[in-house]
Every structure is written in structure tokens, then in C-alpha cells.
Amino acid sequence: MTNVAVIYYSSTGNVHRLARAAAEAAEAAGAEVRLRRIPRPAEETFVPGTEEAAAGLREATGDIPEATLDDLDWADGILFGSPVRFGLPAPAVIRFIDTTAPLSIPGRLANKAVSAFTSGSAPHGGHETTILALHNAFCHWGSLIVANGSTDPVLFQPNNGNPYGSSAVSRNKPGQVHEENLAAIAYQARRVTEVAGVVRGLKTA
Question: What CATH superfamily is the domain 3-204?
């Protein structure tokens, strides 16, 4: 069985919704799945008016285990989710990536199928740059980047179109994820599962 880890950070719930959909789709595609959240930093700031949603998300997701390096080591395929922060991944995600040297330097992240997704407040507000910034780290790991491309009809729906990875426009509304975005992340998760399964098969052949 192919192992897929969905590792994400979410402040008010949009990335969390995408991560849940990714985990469900990977599991439906036959993968063993670990859904893992990156913990909230103590110094996190919020868009004014979203504090209540952030508190609600903390309570609602308290049962989801925190991400560890073991989850990366275990996985054949990995999906990383982060909100947009000024066109970059959230600091909590960067901090987690900064801890991966014990795996990446010995090559334990090489040849894993890895992909990224995001949510941001506005169209053209940094979705692509956030995903591509994560791709930079994946390149250093020697991982195999699995992009959405323009490879399925769902990606041509009006609320999709980003070829790098699935993204949602939140308009700073907690839980604002369009059904078309959920369909895109499900496709992305299936694609990661498929590629990871092929690579795993080559390793064990």
C-alpha cells in the first residue's frame, strides 16, 4: 500500500478544508493516509475579525496529530498545505521545513512524490508564489514535484486554473473553499498517490 502524508498549517480553516479533502481522496485512491497539522506558533497574528474563527479551528482540530519528521520519513507521497502570507508560506510551515535537515541531507526525502496547495485572501494575491516557494524546498530535498498542470477538466473550472497546485480564494472568510477547489485538491491527491505508487513499485521491483 502507498503511504501518503497530508501535512498542513491552517489559521482559520480554509487550508484545513483542503487538507481534509486531500486526505479523503488519497484514502479513496487506496493509500494509507496520515493527516497531520503543523502546530500554531505562539506569536501568530491574525487578519482582524478572524480571531474567533481561529479559536474555533483550534478546538475543532485538536484531535489531529501534530506533524513530525517521522511522518515525512514514512510517506511515499506528501501534500503540503499552507495559507498565503505576503506571497510566501506561513512562518509555521517554514519552521517545520527548517527541521527537515536530518532527513534531507542523508537523502531520505529523495524521490518522494511531493506537492503543495494553498489558500489566500484574493485572486493573484500570492497563491502561485506560495506554492513555488514550497517547491524550492522540495528541490533541495531531491523530491519529485507533482504539479497539477492543465491535465484534467476540473482544473479548467472558473474557480481553479493554477497549474502549480490547488488553491482557494478566501476573501478573508473562514471556511471559504469553493466546491471546485475541493474537486481540484482531490484530483491533486489522487495524482500524488498514483505517482508515489509508481515510484514505490520501482523501488521494490
Answer: Flavodoxin domain (3.40.50.360)
